[in-house]
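Duplicate of #3305? Posting structure anyway:
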């Protein structure tokens, strides 16, 4: 399984999220990131690791979709 540091991440649109850890999809064995927003109802979410760690273009700059900002 690929590693991803647990902790607080900032989405490129500005909101903060807490990464709990990684999980493996039972059928496809795809690695998923388990996280929750640090606002609103704080419900658990999952997103493929490949999507969580990809880059996006914003204002002409390539930046991470989620950037690590602090430990748990």
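Output from current build:
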């Amino acid at each position: 399984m690929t590693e991803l540091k647990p902790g607080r991440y900032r989405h490129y649109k500005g909101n903060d999220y807490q990464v709990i850890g990684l999980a493996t999809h039972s059928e496809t064995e795809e690695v998923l990131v388990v996280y929750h927003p640090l606002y609103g109802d704080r419900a658990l979410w999952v997103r493929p690791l490949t999507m969580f760690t990809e880059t996006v273009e914003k204002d002409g700059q390539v930046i991470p979709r989620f950037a690590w900002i602090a430990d748990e």
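Confirmed duplicate; merging threads. The first strand starts at residue 7 and ends at 11. The helical segments are 49-52.
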